[in-house]
Amino acid sequence: MCSGALIIAALGHLKGLSATTYPTAFEALKTYGVEVLEDKHLVTHGNIGTAAGCLATVDLLSWAIEKLYDNKVREDVIASVLPIGQGQVCLY
Asked: Looking at the domain assignment, is residue 91 inside a domain?
């Protein structure tokens, strides 16, 4: 998340693809020849996902968990990290 897209780009995995990142890293990501989608909080291509900051992490994790497992696992995990009122009720 955030500027992790820079690492993926440096490894050459974003060649010819679009991506997003934290706004302060837009210009740095462009230096790798990546089409930066500044108005998207999540961009995915196959098994690669990039997110535009801390709040986009939930969407990035949601995408990855569903890709690796299934919708039920995704729902359970994401519900456990959402704020009270948006996910599960705190049991503590």
From this structure: no
